[in-house]
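User: Can you predict the 3D structure for this chain?
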Amino acid sequence: MFNYTITNYGINKYKSKWILTFGVVTNISLLGYFKYTNFFVDRFNEIFGVSISVAHIVLPLAISFYTFQQIAWLVDNYKKEAPESNFIEYACAVLFFPHLIAGPIVQYHDLVPQLKELKSSVNYKLILNGFFLIAIGCVKKVYIADYLSMFVDTWYSSYTDFNTIKAWLATFGYASQIYFDFSGYCDIAIGSALIFGIKLPQNFNDPYKATSIRDFWRRWHITLGYFLTKYVYIPLGGNRKGYRRTLINIFLMLCISGLWHGAGVTFILWGALHGAAMVIHRVFSDSKLSIVKPLSIFITFITVCLLWVMFRSDSVECASYVYKNLFSLNIPHGVNWEIKSGFDLHDLRKYLYVLILSFIVVFLFPKAQDIFDKHCEKYSIVISVFSVIAICLALFRIIVNSYTTFIYFNF
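Assistant: Here is the predicted structure, written as structure tokens:
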């Protein structure tokens, strides 16, 4: 019934362009309605002092991700770069559940050929690989990200009580929380796909080891960076229209990234700050100046952590409180930390241990896939037992603890 090919190869270019425009505008309009209507109405009311009201719009789960994927398919089809596929294959590519909720943002030329070549035979090595990645992802999420979030969320909920120590603890805590939250989800997504015999692209490559902000975006949420480069930066002109235009295009690309992440002033400012950092790095690198690698990694890591403050804050006022206390030397003397921090000293020690351990893992441990590739043949039984125990313990912890969600489920 659906065995027909979805391509534009038989349509003339004029009609194809209109189809492309209609499809892209429709997708962006739906995303704009569901994700940004309340935000823009609220800003309009604030600016003009009116009280226009709209019903609270519920954001469909994963709309940002499948909107981008559908736009990518439309553009690639228009350029005759999309793989030939029938409706079922197209729908499976869009709705393939492991990557649907929060990425990775998969290109059709990576996924459709795999769907066409799926075999009925069972690949036990891929299945074991998948369960191992799921186990690692669960450990990252449940035992690191969720634990850190208890402290970070508590501190941000009473941001007017920040002091210098609490501000730095919260800043580094959120940097670790979002890393293990999102990378943990991606491990689970990639692992789930492997169980079905599908290989999804890597989405993280040690981003906190980046030597520049540009290098960071090549390592953090890799598939989003690829999408923005191919479908935003290059269509804007890339680096083909002069040096000044190149810098503007870089800045605009990161601003769009911020807006994509959420309907809020803080997300827009976060994207703009990353765009400004990218422009500064581009100018610096073009000047032929350089700094030693350890220092460049340190500067990049601190910059990323400081910018996460804007991303995490619910308002500009909250972010300003955090930034002010980060650099104000507002260090409490003779105060009872059990009162001021909202946690007793035992809990704070555990928080510090987990935080330090998390950064040891980030900077010194190999990636989960590298561990599997190196030891799967010799220690397959150990990997199997570890995977089962880790997944069961994570599920038990989720059941007994209060409900938490992945950060990128909100986008």
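The chain has two domains: 13-116, 124-410. The chain has a mean pLDDT of 87.
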